[in-house]
Amino acid sequence: MNEKNINMDNLADTEENDLNEILKVRRDKLQELKSNNKDPFKEVKYEVNSSTSQIIGNFESMEGQRVSLAGRIMSKRGMGKASFCDIQDRYGRIQLYVRINEIGKEIYEEFKKYDIGDIVGVEGEVFKTHKGEISIKVGKIKLLAKSLQPLPEKWHGLRDVELRYRQRYVDLIVNPEVRNTFITRTNIIKSVRRYLDENGFLEVETPLLNPIAGGAAARPFITHHNTLDMDLYLRIAPELYLKRLIVGGLERVYELGRVFRNEGMSVKHNPEFTIMEVYQAYADYKDMMKLTEGIISTAARDITGDT
Q1: Residues 6+ apart with CB under 8 A from 105
Q2: Alpha-carbon distance values, 272 to 3, 7, 16, 143, 259 (Å)
Q3: pLDDT at 265
Q4: So what's the pLDDT on residue 6?
Q5: What is the Cα–Cα distance from 69 to 123, expressed in whole angstroms?
């Protein structure tokens, strides 16, 4: 083993020891909270009346108002009897200004022990700092959940592609663009559903467990039904059942749902994925082309404001 390998091994051991120490400290903090009857995991409800985007987007009308919101601590900067921290909710981030004179010595000492990653609820007044940053002057703060695992390091973040896919929850916390992708996907699906509904289509649900692997040319996942003592297949497509509904007289149907294909894997292909199939009686390929164009252009307009 050469010197470089020895140094890398020593670095890995040091990082592992550092991580174990961080984990121990955080668990000790949780135990202390429990001993003082302040277990954050017993908090089941917190009243929220604002979000980061509402406050930042409507600062002129909300300045001086008292708001209540909750989020995850993403950064923390202490300055003696006052501290700043950033919290992140679903919509973005906002800065908190926490002063010992506002929340009291006991709560401030507790706040100083909060870690990055902890989830807090705050009440306070909307204002702008001397540097022009929209912030909340905290009057009350409460720990709602203790983060026992540290978040990825600030500057390098979560860069390992496989780890990002395996730990999507961490990816969502530290990479805002991923969170925006999830939200955009949801809005696209809403738009597609709305367009089809307004054009007389019925959304239906068809079986996931099929007696045959039909509707597409793909290798299925196989399972066994104990009561019926028969093999069943996770569907590779909803096509056959949707066509039966057309035969039954529903005329216009669609389904947005999961299908399963026991084949290769890559960042562009997953064995389990969402598919949409649409069927319309008394129509030809030109009608389906027009429908497809309408779905895509409407979704683009709904999401981006333009086609």
Answers
A1: none
A2: 45, 42, 35, 38, 6
A3: 83
A4: 53
A5: 7
Q: Which domains does the chain have, with CATH numbers?
A: 8-145 (2.40.50.140), 175-304 (3.30.930.10)
Tens-place pLDDT, residues 17-47: 777 898 999 999 999 999 999 999 998 899 9
Kind and range of the H or E run holding 213: none
Q: What is the pLDDT of residue 215?
A: 87
Give the single-character DSSP code of 266.
Answer: B
Q: Residue 277's pLDDT is what? A: 97
Helices (H), the chain: 3-35, 52-57, 59-62, 100-103, 105-112, 161-166, 168-174, 176-198, 239-247, 285-304
Q: State how far the Cα of 221 lies from the Cα of 213, in Å rounded to an integer.
A: 9
- Report how far apart, in Å, the C-alpha atoms of 32 and of each of 26, 202, 290 are: 10, 55, 64
User: Distance between CA atoms of 42 and 34, rounded to whole angstroms?
Assistant: 10
What's the confidence (pLDDT) of residue 55? 97
- CA-angle at 49, arms to 43 and 53, nearest 5°: 110
CB count in 10 Å sphere of residue 48? 15
Q: Which residues in the chain show pLDDT less than 50? A: 8, 11
- Strand ordering across the sheet containing 202-203: 202-203, 252-260, 272-280
Amino acid type, 75: S
Helices (H), 74-175: 100-103, 105-112, 161-166, 168-174
The Cα 176–Cα 93 span in angstroms is 10
pTM of the model: 0.82
